[in-house]
Every structure is written in structure tokens, then in C-alpha cells.
Amino acid sequence: AQKITQTQPGMFVQEKEAVTLDCTYDTSDPSYGLFWYKQPSSGEMIFLIYQGSYDQQNATEGRYSLNFQKARKSANLVISASQLGDSAMYFCAMRENDGNNRKLIWGLGTSLAVNP
Amino acid sequence: NAGVTQTPKFRVLKTGQSMTLLCAQDMNHEYMYWYRQDPGMGLRLIHYSVGEGTTAKGEVPDGYNVSRLKKQNFLLGLESAAPSQTSVYFCASSRTQTWSEQYFGPGTRLTVT
Question: Between chain B's N and C termini, which has fewer beta carbons within 10 Å?
Fold first, then answer.
């Protein structure tokens, strides 16, 4: 079974509008972390934001925020005031507290296109 | 401070040839990882290392070997390349702290004909 599910293969948003990219996860571990990465067409993977399972508040980093709903096991990425440079693939990933390896479990990604 | 670098950036191999991909990081990170990325498949972990001299298998290790002789370097080897190994390969590293993010290299595009 998929541990990280990104249900939106592709999304469109108008420049300057906000967009939400969905991510649901599956874990029985009470201690886990959720990460979002951006991959522009140039190919590099860029870390955006992190949310810990015990964090009381939703994470924010500039125009990025994480809508963390623990009971629903969702960690949606919200991008406010979209810019053309936000057009990219976005990946959600999870790390469970399963020992010393620091491995990430990745979703399949959502392709975001920002229209001018 | 270059972060994570990968050599080469592009490579074309013929079936049966061998090659080594080099990953280097200058951040003194303990953990290093090799991923492959294929269309529609996301990132899949090939091998990883939790410290100098250690390696472990990831999700798709068959056909690959790795070595971590020095803390800053993580080598990925293909002994006998196959067309199924055509992919983009990413190296990543992370700090010791449990919830540290992974820092990625720019990727290597490998084509096996």
C-alpha cells in the first residue's frame, strides 16, 4: 500500500492566486516527519518545508505553508500568491522514526503549472 | 561551499558496460543516499549509507553496488549496465539530527542503449 499519496497528477493555477497541493500519508508510528520538495524543469530537488508530527503549529516558510491535519493524515502544501517560477513538480515525503537510517518515503508528485 | 555534487552530469553506456557515479558532499553529513527517478515512478532509493564505511540496500538495489570509503564521498557502481537502468540518478545527504532534510545533488542522466 502507498504510504504517501499525492492524488493530483497535475494542477493549474493563475498567477498571484493561492494553490493547495494534496498529500495524504499512512503510518502507525506516532513520531514522524513530513517534507515537501520542489523539482523545477532544470531537475534539481529543492527542500521547501518540514512538519513534525508533534509540532503544535502548522509550518510556514515564506509563501509556503503546510496545512497539517493529523487526524485525517494529510499534509497539504499551500502556496500563496503563485509566481511563474512556481511551475514545477512537487513531492511530498515522509520519514518514520524507524531507526537510524533517516530514509524518506516519497509520493509520486504533482505537476504544477502557473498561468500568467 | 558546493553542497552536493555529482559526476558526471550525463552519460551514455552500451549494454554490458560498467561505470561509477561519484557523489561528493562538503557539509560533513553522516548520511548519504542514491536514488533513481523514472517517469511516473517518483524517487526510489537504491542504496544508502549511515556513515563512513557503511552501506545498506534500499528499495531497488539489484544491479548496483556502492561504497563509502570516505565520509564525503558515496560511489554508485553499475557492473553490467542494462537498458532498464536508463534513468536520472540523484545523490543526497543529510545531517545526523533525526528530522534533518535531505540535500540533493544536481542529478546524473544515464542512458543505456
Answer: N
Extract the residue ranges of chain A whose pLDDT is less than 50.
none
Pull the grid cell for residue A95.
520519514
CB contact under 8 A, B58 and A47: no
Residues near B79 by beta carbon (within 8 Å), at least 6 away in sequence: B18, B63, B65
B25 vs A38: CA distance, rounded Å: 20
- The answer to whether the CB atoms of B99 and A50 lie below 8 A apart is yes
Query: Does residue B107 sit at the A interface (CB-CB below 8 Å)?
Result: yes
Using the Cβ of A108 and the Cβ atoms of chain B, whether some distance falls under 8 Å is answered with: yes
Q: pLDDT, tens digit, for every residue of B71-106?
A: 999 999 999 999 999 999 999 999 887 788 999 999
